[in-house]
Amino acid sequence: MPSLPDAVTVRAAAKVNLELLVGPRDASGYHALATVFQAVSLYDDVTVRRAGRCSLTVAGRDAEHVPTDESNLAWRAVVAVGEGHPDAGPVAISIAKDIPVAGGMAGGSADGAAALVAADALWGVGLGRSELHRLAAGLGADVPFSVLGGTAIGTGRGDELAPAMARGSYHWVFAFSDEGLSTPRVFAELDRLRAERGEEAVHQPEPEVSPALMTALLAGDAEAVGRAMHNDLQEAALSLQPRLADTLVIGQECGALGGIVSGSGPTCAFLAASHEHALDLAVALTASGVASDVRRAQGPVPGARLIHPGKEQ
Ligand code: C5P
């Protein structure tokens, strides 16, 4: 039997929701969702190393905003994998962040997913797909998708996944905001806005992913995907950060095929027609000064995957 490694590094991607429909709120406070996720090429790397005592350090983008105690999803993931496993012991977790914190791109979920896969490999636990999914869903609604990657339909809380039939590669431009948005706060704001219109949160229709988007993805038709992009949480994110509307207008003026708030925001996601168009869009967004940072990425990309030790070792 090959010996177990002393340290494992796993890379997990950010996500964008091409469509995010928010249905009724249940008794636990969660909302029924119908969403289409796509993993995009912005990554966090999580290293889990055997150590004398448990610790967690974070470096990179927004590192100062990330908790370094046992509330961190990566820490909770390692604890969840180790529970009842004889070879589990203290580990030093280090996270290299490139996904914005509280940005609506599942940065925390990516760290949780990466840490699950890393701890599994470090201790040779041999988690099967369904056990990995169960542990991931226990950490948060977006964590199962961060494990899976690609393009997928999410229902339930967003944690019941089915891979989407999707062709092609998509060029994205993301405009970050210097101020994060809390996901529970954005859902609560949507409930409030709906209540103002006389729509009760518990009496929303059951959401269903739109056939137009599925057809567009199947055909690999970026223009049609752009037209079909939609996010029910956008009005709530705009209500909490009204200046995001300026960012969306600039994307539209520069011919983005689609432009929406990503997840619960505040990151704005723009679909470009080509690599060159993405460059132009990124330049225009940067020059306008509306965003704290602008990044290009491609999707879909895989979910959480081992990058060290590599296959050759
Ligand atoms: O599962 P996770 O911890 O990522 O969710 C964060 C918060 O987002 C929840 O506490 C809830 O307020 C909101 N949420 C929701 N319905 C979902 C997913 C998340 O209301 N399906």
From TrEMBL:
GO terms for molecular function: 4-(cytidine 5'-diphospho)-2-C-methyl-D-erythritol kinase activity; ATP binding. The keyword Magnesium does not apply. Keywords: ATP-binding, Isoprene biosynthesis, Kinase, Nucleotide-binding, Transferase. It comes from the Bacteria. Pathway: Isoprenoid biosynthesis; isopentenyl diphosphate biosynthesis via DXP pathway; isopentenyl diphosphate from 1-deoxy-D-xylulose 5-phosphate: step 3/6. ATP binds at P100, V101, A102, G103, G104, M105, A106, G107, G108, S109, A110. The keyword Coiled coil does not apply. It catalyses: 4-CDP-2-C-methyl-D-erythritol + ATP = 4-CDP-2-C-methyl-D-erythritol 2-phosphate + ADP + H(+). Its EC number is 2.7.1.148. The active site is at K15, D142. GO terms for biological process: isopentenyl diphosphate biosynthetic process, methylerythritol 4-phosphate pathway; terpenoid biosynthetic process. Residues 72-150 form the GHMP kinase N-terminal domain. Residues 214-289 form the GHMP kinase C-terminal domain. Belongs to the GHMP kinase family. IspE subfamily. HAMAP family: IspE (MF_00061). Catalyzes the phosphorylation of the position 2 hydroxy group of 4-diphosphocytidyl-2C-methyl-D-erythritol. PANTHER family: 4-DIPHOSPHOCYTIDYL-2-C-METHYL-D-ERYTHRITOL KINASE, CHLOROPLASTIC. This is 4-diphosphocytidyl-2-C-methyl-D-erythritol kinase. It comes from Arsenicicoccus cauae.
